[in-house]
Amino acid sequence: MQASQAVPLFRYWGPDAIAYGPVELPEFVSWIKHGRVTADTWVFLDHQGEWRRAREIEELKMFFRDRTDGESGPTPPGIHPENLRRIKYFSEMEPEQLTSLLHYLELVSLPKFAVLFKEGDPADALYSILDGEMRVRKIIDGRETTLFTLGPGESFGETALLSEKPRVADVVANEDTSLLKLPAEVFRRLTREAPALATPFLIAISRTITARALDLGRRFEEAVRLGTGAGVV
Predict the structure, then answer these.
(1) Section 209-232 average pLDDT
(2) Which end of the chain, N or C, is surrounded by fewer C-beta atoms within 10 Å?
């Protein structure tokens, strides 16, 4: 019985000096169609163990016949890579990294008073605010309690990237707001395709979650002290 042939895998060297992949041919073709891979992009063929220009690879030639060498496809509508610098998580990234990251993000527009998600909804994405303001609230005994508000540059929903636990509060737009959405399944794909790009992002998220946990602990201790004091008085 003949041994089955290995499935061809492809990687490419991005302008941000990060190697993306390996992925199988259908996924790699989608990268070409979205402009992430151009005719001049260096591609590593895992099954052959060599780097070649994309236009020189037999399986890919047909996708560059109607393109000018080096031509890239459109970025997601409504977003420019430099806009990502408004977000604290992305503010220190290089321009090439921002361009690469843009392919993993979605633009979401919310009108004033729109509810993005409610307590108990599946936690399926991280959101970052480009413009506008959001508030995080809890409904207790039919009354709304605002936990905190978030403005441009801030993010929320980080735990969705790390666990599948449901949302613990409602999030509502205080005004017309533009958000960047990073779905959890897309983030998992990012960690597979470009771990060098995902790692600093994941470290920043971990630091944010830790800082929030410490702040919550301090608030709880203060509440306990105030409660104890009130009991004594």
Answers:
(1) 67
(2) N
